[in-house]
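Before going further, learn to read the protein records used in this course. A complete example follows; check for yourself that the lines match position by position.
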Amino acid sequence: MDSTMERAGNFLPRVDESAASSNAVDRRVVTLTAPASAAAEQYRTLYYRLERMREQRPMKVVALTSAMPGEGKTVTSVNLALAAARANPERRILLVDADLRRGQVAPTLGMRNKQGLAELLAGECDVRDVVRRFNATRLAVIPAGATPEESTQVLASARMKQFLKAVREGFDEVYVDLPPTLPFADAAILGHQMDGVLMVIRANVTPSKVVNQAVEQLAGAALVGCVLNGAEVNATPYLKNYVKK
């Protein structure tokens, strides 16, 4: 797998034709659908904060998770990866959907999900069969693929470790959309193999007790910060006044 991934990092994957229509992209992908919006600016701010962290420590592979489903981790992952691709067009950026139970990266981007990480880890296909370049960007995407019977076992396998080693060598930045932390062991298993982990929290929805439990479950992982998702502009008076000008 290593040599194959090394080659993958040296070519620009073919465009996924099913993502050619902007209408297929989820409207919450604001870095594309509303690039001048305050929400899009927040994703760019998040990206540059990570860049500043990279000045202090190596952080090539960054994962995003949440305590529970429905907190917006996938939308955050997609927007962050697109912000990275736009900010640094000379870099090789990869977005991986590692939520093998309910992968949503492909539907969010309006892309096909026929083959992905699950099939790659099962040895059923080559990396060139699963890596896609999204639309007119330089963002490479690996969707989740079909849900395997034993997702946790697949993600804890030696093949997954080999895959992560390979993408470190083949790409400059890798963003990994992990499953929610509390319902499954998947995020805890993979979190320890990441350079940094971001916890996505739904504003006014996720109880602090639940967030604390998720953080405890990730103990030992490099948790670098939290992303407050779904906060109203009204909650930040300065931003509200600035946007009005």
